[in-house]
Design a protein that fits this description.
Blueprint (H helix, E strand, L loop, with lengths): L1 E5 L4 H12 L3 E5 L13 H5 L4 E4 L8 H22 L3 E7 L9 H14 L5 E6 L6 H6 L2 E2 L2 E4 L3 E2 L4 H12 L7 E5 L4 E2 H12 L4 E4 L22 E2 L4 H13 L1
Parallel strand pairs: 1-2, 1-3, 3-4, 4-5, 5-9, 7-11, 9-12
Antiparallel strand pairs: 6-7, 8-10
Helix pairs in contact: 1-6, 3-4
The structure holds NADP nicotinamide-adenine-dinucleotide phosphate (NAP).
NADP nicotinamide-adenine-dinucleotide phosphate binds next to helix 1 and strand 4.
Length: about 250
């Protein structure tokens, strides 16, 4: 079946395209790089022709509060309008575990707005709420950089490999719409500062890690387990050590 992958050049998107192609589907990567822009609407109607499913794994190019909210709202509205016109039967999108519990984060507010557009958009849908990707850990840690140290929150994160997110997206896209949310998290939950120590031990980074309960995670304090999965969640098998070993092997090739 024809499956359009919005954000098909990205970290999750390119992996999803590979998987769907290997399963014999016609996976069509769509993003500005291929002449499809969900903000301007360029190329949207054309790429939707004959599509049964649309996967949205795009991400905003700018993460300031107003910019990211405008991106996810406008992009999702334009996408769903094009999907309704083309008779697409399933919209699949990736959101974030706990997004609605942390309204002080502009990025997470934007993901909640994206979910609301999907839920009201009139196209059968599945929302995969994933936890933070292991691949995103260096960026999370560097956001707390202060000279020779990093100051990080003590709330929990349950990092998941992007490869497992992509596998789950590919599976959901070829299943019936859930018309609801499904959660996916990694096998271990650690505080953000503990994740940093783990990363630094593996990479030989000598910076000091300061645990600060008031340090912010993308604009918000974490009070405990907001970023961890709830009952009924899918739990990935790839832990930090396996992910890091795979990363090192990939770099050596
Ligand atoms: N990082 C995490 O820890 C995490 C956790 C849970 C959920 N998520 C969600 O996972 C999703 C995918 O993240 P990712 O890290 O795989 O993204 P990414 O690698 O940053 O890729 C972003 C993609 O969005 C495309 N894009 C940007 N502007 C576009 C536009 N106007 N129209 C169409 N496509 C556009 C880009 O296309 P070009 O290459 O052509 O510019 C690119 O393919 C995001 O929605 C994110 O919120 C992330």
């Amino acid at each position: 079946m024809k499956i359009v992958v919005i954000g098909g050049s990205g970290r999750v998107g390119s992996n999803v395209v590979r998987r769907l192609d290997a399963q014999g589907h016609e996976a069509v990567p769509a993003s500005p790089a291929t002449g499809v822009d969900t903000i301007s609407g360029e190329g949207l109607a054309e790429v939707m022709v004959g599509a049964e499913v649309v996967i949205d794994v795009s991400n905003a190019p700018a993460w300031e509060d107003d910019a990211v909210l405008a991106f996810f709202t406008t992009s999702t509205r334009n996408l769903l309008a094009a999907e309704r016109d083309a008779g697409v039967g399933h919209h699949v999108a990736v959101s974030i575990v706990g997004a609605d519990l942390l309204p002080d984060s502009g990025y997470l507010r934007a993901k909640v707005a994206q979910e609301a557009e999907i839920e009201a958009g009139g196209v059968p849908y599945t929302i995969l709420r994933a936890t933070q990707f292991l691949e995103f850990l260096p960026q999370i840690v560097d956001a707390g950089a202060e000279g020779d140290s990093v100051r990080l929150p003590t709330g929990l994160m349950q990092l998941v490999a992007a490869d497992e997110v992509a596998a789950t997206v590919a599976e959901l896209a070829t299943s019936a719409p859930a018309n609801g949310r499904i959660e996916l998290g990694g096998p271990e939950a650690l505080s953000v500062d503990a994740w940093a120590r783990r990363l630094f031990a593996a990479t030989g980074d000598s910076r000091e890690v300061i645990a600060d309960p008031h340090a912010r995670y993308f604009g918000t304090e974490l009070h405990g387990g907001e970023l961890t999965t709830g009952d009924g969640a899918r739990i990935g098998a790839i832990d930090f050590d396996r992910w890091f070993a795979g990363r090192a092997q990939g770099a050596a090739r």
